[in-house]
Amino acid sequence: MIKDIIIEIRPKQWIKNLFVLAALVFSRKFIYMESVIQSLSSFVSFILASSAIYMVNDIFDIEKDRNHPVKSKRPIASGKIKCSTAWIVAVGLGGLSLVVPLTPLIWGYPINANFYLILISYILLMIWYSVGLKNRVILDVMAVASGFVLRAIAGAVAISVKISGWFFFSALLLSLFLALVKRRQEILMNQKSAHRKVLKHYSPQFIDQMISIVCASTIVTYLLYTMDRTSTFLLPVTVVFVIYGIFRYLYIIHQYGGGEEPEKIIFSDIP
Hints:
Layout: H1 2-8, H2 22-26, H3 33-60, H4 62-65, H5 75-78, H6 83-99, H7 114-131, H8 139-158, H9 165-188, H10 204-226, H11 238-255, H12 262-268
Helix pairs in contact: 3-6, 3-7, 3-8, 7-8, 8-9, 9-10, 10-11
């Protein structure tokens, strides 16, 4: 049972929650123990929340997943975990995600109370995505991207860092880029089936046009963010690495595929 639950909560996808730590890095507050503790507790909180959402999503999609060649092997779809048990685990994880942010109080470092508003907004948005938004063309990728942005905002709020407009848009566009690439790969893998009805509204050409626009916008907004008056003199140097990372990612998905699982590319790619 424990092994099946671990499979359901998708540990490999926890890397997506690193967006929570972005503010800690770019604000250079990682030299302060208070900020590190607050950020790490926020990171763990989002791991728990996202894990709960994965289970909820699989509960709602149980019938569709049973007809999918890969997803049919997931514990909930295969019947290894009953829906009632899955609900209990999901609610438990969701509850823990609200408790973990209180742990910094042990060291006398309370997290900004507004963090809870962002966390709850994330949970509600992802539930909405699971029950309906994922079947709405364009809104589906916007919802996924918004989930990443809320992670980044939550990380900034947790350590009481003022959010730069350019930082916000950089996070949004990068998230949208990843979401669009994932949709593109799903289409190319002939997944236009009843399992994901929204794919019939997309075409590779349409997706590629959006990716081109978002890719260029991501680079420009990040460049402007690095030139913001609040940034360090070394931050603009990172633009080179960001451009390389984006181009490398595009190269991989066009030459080898695999964009449907970004975490695999990040862990396995060796330039």
